[in-house]
Amino acid sequence: MQLPSRVQLVEVGPRDGLQNEKQLVPAEVKIDLVHRLQDAGLTEIEVTSFVSPKWVPQMADAAAVMAGIERRKGVRYAVLTPNMQGLEGALASGADEIVVFGAASEAFSRKNINCSIAESIERFAPVAQAARARGITVRGAISCTVGCPYEGEIAPERVELVARLMKEIGVQHVGVADTIGVGTPRKVQRALEAALRHFELDAVSGHYHDTYGQALANTLASLELGIWHFDTSIAGLGGCPYAKGATGNVATEDVVFLLHGMGIETGIDLDRLVDAGAAISSHLQRPPNSRAATALLNKRAS
Ligand code: HMG
Ligand code: MG
Prior knowledge:
Elements: E1 8-11, H1 13-17, H2 27-39, E2 44-49, H3 62-68, E3 76-80, H4 84-93, E4 97-103, H5 106-113, H6 117-133, E5 137-143, E6 147-148, E7 152-153, H7 156-168, E8 173-178, H8 185-196, E9 204-208, H9 215-224, E10 229-232, H10 252-261, H11 270-284, H12 291-301
């Protein structure tokens, strides 16, 4: 089986990772995290979300965080934008990429963005159009592509429908998200194949939360399909405030260890990545939620 020789990671720690933290993380700490991530070689970073601060208080400093980052050539900075108001913030902040986020589950769509799937697409259409008119890349995230905290198992047909609707409104790249981490390799492959009916292989990524410890297996299963874009979160941070019990995305350190061990290039320096994870974990006063980071930190200490 021919696996991709190179993988592009989108680091979502500053956004997906921190959005669920109860204690407000100061903007300087978020900015420092982004700097450390780009120092480690990450070239695509999901920095923050221009969402309602009433819904996600942790992201209320989106403009300040974007303004505080020292931009590096070759790095793309992405932000979440649920509506036109979010897009205005994103444009003012100079984001390179925006993410509209919908769901394959009606119940989750309502809980997360307060509208139905159909309404969300109507809302995203002008956002995608206005962003593209300005040369900004438009990604779409599809939540709950395998399971939903409110509806249970989700059929691949539902993923296909949302992928098609996103394609129709000009979304350029779609992320297949296992929001609550219940996916196992074959189920995740079915969800990816559903998205692949409407998007090219180069335009589909995997976004796997690791709640049940399946995310690395799901990453490998995705590589088997030729998928070579993944969202990962430094130190395994995160979860969605509207998906109770869901833990963080698969740790970037673990995915990089897996990929490098298989001879797949990422352009990332694992040692510096571990430093970035250790720094944010130290701020949050807990050890990194990454097996590879823990092992490498123990090895350094011994
Ligand atoms: P709503 O209450 O229906 O919105 O929320 P509204 O249009 O009626 O506005 C209500 C208030 O929000 C108004 O303020 C607006 O100005 C304000 P007020 O007049 O009451 O003072 N508002 C905004 N403020 C700042 N930025 C904005 C914005 N929009 C409205 N963009 C809304 C609808 C979509 C805004 C809300 O539900 C929301 O912000 N949801 C975001 C939820 C979220 O961020 N979830 C986590 C990210 S998704 C995720 O983690 C999943 C992912 O990782 C993939 C996966 O794992 O599944 C991507
Ligand atoms: Mg997520």
